[in-house]
Amino acid sequence: MESSTTSTVGAHDASDVERVCFQLQVDPARLDEYRERHAAVWPDMLRAIQASGRRNYSLFLRDDGLLIGYYETDDDAASQAALEADPRTAAWEADMAPFVIALDGARPDQGAPRIPEVFHLEDQLAALDADAASVTAAADAGPAASVTTRTESSHS
Asked: What is the pTM of this model?
């Protein structure tokens, strides 16, 4: 199983937000039922996910059963622990476990392999903006600082 990989973003509260992506394999013979169950997730499960600190949570399902999940959280380890301890989550995952292939007995949410992030548009744009701002600040400060220094030294 892959190790957990998360990334930090600058949109929610700077360095505290983690983006998490994971994958599972849903039994292709049960895709319609899986989709139906997720069209109306149990209200208690929705509240448990929310209480765990996960937000912007989405699942994507291909016709061959490949499931990709994505969510954001401030602390993924704490979110995982909260969901693992929550009886509402355990009941939902027990109900969903027969749909998921090859987790070696792990609960679907707890055993899903993570997918490492390799690109995030907003992070790279923020880096460009920060670089541009520092170049502009240096250019603005550079000549002015030189003029001030020359003027002060000529009056000495």
From this structure: 0.72
